[in-house]
Write a structure and sequence with these properties.
Blueprint: H1 15-52, H2 61-73, H3 75-96, H4 104-129, H5 135-140, H6 142-149, H7 151-168
Helix pairs in contact: 1-2, 1-3, 1-4, 3-7, 4-7
Length: 179
């Protein structure tokens, strides 16, 4: 027994929403994690490591704290890799889901909704990072902030790439006869 799902044209662009939500989620997670570590955990961890290690031990508390905060800060240079991976995901989904060019109109409606959501997510990220509580954390994530400030443009570029793959690179039947 074989299960076949019919794929409609509007489902080809759903990867836009996936990319949008993942980018926003990772950005907010990184800023909140860094802020929580910097504001609350770092001092408590410093006190715990200082009071729990014997004086003659070779534990370098400063290095441990720098390594921990450095691990969280590594989310900034790794964010472009996430972006490339998500673009790859969207393009592979477009390759797997070819649809009729008549569905491009539905794709434009989906694009409009995705760009509205991208503007909302971008403004939400900006309002969170410009608050006094998160301003230090936002300064650490310059690449992440750049992508989130340009999130609508990023989604539009992904839409154009998906549409080009789905409709521009279609393998059609040649017209005319054989010679």
């Amino acid at each position: 027994m074989e299960l076949r799902l019919k794929k409609k044209g509007q489902t080809d662009f759903i990867s836009l929403f996936f990319v949008l939500v993942v980018l926003f989620g990772v950005a907010i997670f990184a800023v909140i994690l860094y802020n929580a570590y910097d504001e609350n955990i770092k001092d408590n961890l410093n006190d715990a490591l200082t009071s729990s290690t014997p004086v003659d031990a070779n534990a370098n508390v400063t290095r441990i704290l720098e390594d921990t905060s450095g691990g969280i800060s590594m989310l900034n240079p790794l964010f472009p890799l996430l972006l490339v991976g998500l673009f790859g995901f969207g393009l592979v989904m477009a390759l797997m889901g070819r649809s009729h060019p008549a569905f491009l109109f539905i794709g434009f409606i989906i694009l409009a909704v995705a760009i509205i959501l991208a503007v909302i997510f971008s403004n939400t990220y900006e309002s969170i990072t410009t608050s006094p509580n998160f301003s230090t954390a936002a300064g650490e994530f310059s690449v992440l902030t750049l992508v989130m400030d340009n999130l609508p443009l990023t989604i539009f570029i992904l839409f154009v790439a998906i549409a080009a793959i789905m409709y521009g690179l279609r393998e059609g039947t040649p017209t005319g006869g054989t010679y």
